[in-house]
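Worked example

This section walks through a single chain of length 152. The input is the sequence exactly as stored; nothing has been trimmed or padded.
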Amino acid sequence: MKALLQRVRQASVTVEDEEIGRIGPGLLVLLCAEPQDDEAVADRLLAKVLKLRIFSDAEGRLNRDLRDLDGAGTPGGLLLVSQFTLTADCSRGNRPSFTGAAPAAQGRALYDHVVQQARCLHPDVATGRFGADMQVALVNDGPVTIWLDMQP
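Given that input, the structure is written out below as tokens.
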């Protein structure tokens, strides 16, 4: 499973002119399932996302995770957005191939699983809409952008 994490001051997702998800300070996570992925891989990826220390402490060091943005237990927002284009293969020609992405049914099931688990583990979770044409707006913080590639 692939994920691109962006530390944000705020982020939102709009579908057909309707805002369907919004967070304040936290993480925007673009997710893509691959054919070999399963729920165990998705669970490991989510655990890593929640524990990754990429928020600054009082000294400016990346020492805080999403569950404790300010050192006083304040959780950050988590915006989960499906994005099959994270598997783009641009090695041949000028048109990317997305054959590395899981089939739609598997991708949806794994995305839904991550969302469900995230909502059980974290108090502030917003989402995009699987398979929709989405407009994602964000104010990147840092910028801090982290690539995760969780293998089975």
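What to look for: The two ends are 8 Å apart (CA to CA).
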